[in-house]
Amino acid sequence: MNSLFTSFRRILPLNPNSHHHFLLHKFSSSRRSSPPIPIQRLQQPPASPDSTRHQLTVPDFSQTDLATISNLLENQNVIPGSSLESALNETGIEPSYQLVQALFDRLSSSPMLLHSVFKWADTKPTFTLSPSLFNSVINAMCKARDFESAWSLIFDRVRSDGGSELVTADTFTVLIRRYARAGMVQQAIKAFEYATSYYDIELKLLEVLLDALCKEGHVTEASMYMERRRRMDSNWIPSVRIFNILLNGWFRARKLKQAENLWGEMKEMNVKPSVVTYGTLIEGYCRMRRVEVAMEVLEEMKMAEMEMSFMVFNPIINGLGEAGRLQEALGMMERFFVCVSGPTIVTYNSLVKNFCKAGDLLGASKILKMMMNRGVDPTPTTYNHFFKYFSKHNKTEEGMNLYFKLIEAGHSPDRFTYHLIMKMLCEDGKLSLAMQVDKEMKNRGIDPDLLTTTMLIHLLCRLDMFEEAFEEFEKAVRRGIIPQYITFKMIDNGLRTKGLTEMAKRLGGVMSSLPHSEKLPNAYREVVDAQPPGRGDRRKSILHRAEAMSDVLKVCRNPRKLVKMRGSPRMTVREDEKLADDGDGDAVRVPHESSSPLS
DNA sequence: ATAGGGTTAG
Questions:
Q1: Number of structural domains in chain A
Q2: A372: domain range?
Q3: Which of residues 562 to 581 on A have a Cβ less than 7 angstroms from any strand B atom?
Q4: Per the record, where are the segments of Basic and acidic residues compositional bias (predicted)?
Q5: What is the per-residue pLDDT across A296-319, written as a single tens digit (0 to 9) for each?
Q6: DSSP assignment of A476-535, as one string?
Q7: Contact present, A434 and A426 (Cβ < 8 Å)
Q8: Is residue A304 included in any domain, yes or no?
């Protein structure tokens, strides 16, 4: 830290007359001690609904058992299930609720192993299957797209009269949501119809069905299904909840016209809108950049004496800010103050963002002061908006000033903060600072990633420091990062031009040991073909290209979010192999037909 | 987990 600070002063002498020096004092006023790095992690298995019910029972699964079985499964994964079952029996391990649950978590991608484990546990007399464990088997099977096994499990447990202790409405909820997620709309509907023919749970499940379809991007189908039911029973009036679900679906799909039609229909049918309805409308209109209309809805809501909260104020304040109407946004916040919930961190962050976007840093820091006076602490998101501004306008010095202030005040920058800072420093050619920030980022527990590594290496190339670039390249690979092909090419070209063929060969060796594509952005190929590596403005455009490319490579961690944003023309999502499994274990969508008993 | 609920885009 100290060396970083000194070198910073050497490279960028502090300028007390900087336009943005007022920022220097803002963040430090909420001085607090640096939060300790959490060392201990929870050792216990995640609590499940069933285990919390018997809180006093000693956890009944040992890590050794889990390891033994995991090991067994790994070595058996090509041998048919029957032999696996006997192998499991030979271990002599008694299945328990938690052990089985833990195994399911590990097996979510392998339906066959899942099935074996389930059968192994299920045949033991000491093992009793609870409804929630049963549903989690169903869930795991469906997640692995083995709907057929899920159905056969259900049919095994359903009595001839259709009743069952295990098969409940929740079971079908799981099934329906999973079908919807897999894009199998017809199967989702069939599952719903099957369930409702046996159970008296139609209303709740209908909501589940429509909600699942809407959330997975099938609003039209959801809406058509509702219409069909209305035609079947002309007296039927859909619940507010159903209207809300569909309204939300239309807005998510950015179909304003349809949303408005439904809203009209709702009024025609005298279905009284709820707070959720108003919230959905307001948020929806704001997202469609129709703040004006959103504010009309707000007035209507007031007339209806509905309680107004951050659910309606936040989108409007953000909408006004996005439209550059910052004074009105502030005015709206005044109204917000008098309501019970009052402004939240989201409100302040949104205002800070839009003041920064408008280039009004003074306004932004006033918001900052306001929020801290009200006891709301800024989050990394808050100050990232400032960094965004500094990075965009090449205000490296101001950016670094802010960075040091934050560190001194005990704040913890996040990954995005470091991305912005590194971008700023690399574009500005501040090599030694960039190297040190990179180091500090590591020390603070944020692992360097493809993006920061790429920026750093490309800077080295720009500075004709190809040997150092190679060194960083190797380091990155050792940390498990696969550099982009363009990065390799840049170093390779540089080394060859400098006559360092031996090093170039080593570089080539490292690269070919890595799985990689050989695609290059067009802009790069043009430049390289036209002129050998050198300095000049066009080199800079390469850097920009490379950064843009690595931005694209950022993987969305949560597939649900992709689904949420789907249909938005302003969002470009590459639905390719990069969208593979994440923590939740949801598989990539692949069109796939099921041969469930219903299809 | 699921009726809205948030985070940064040219």
A1: 1
A2: 273-376
A3: 564, 568, 570-571
A4: 572-592
A5: 999 999 999 999 999 999 999 999
A6: HHHTT----HHHHHHHHHHHHHTT-HHHHHHHHHHHHTS-------HHHHHHHHHS-S--
A7: yes
A8: yes
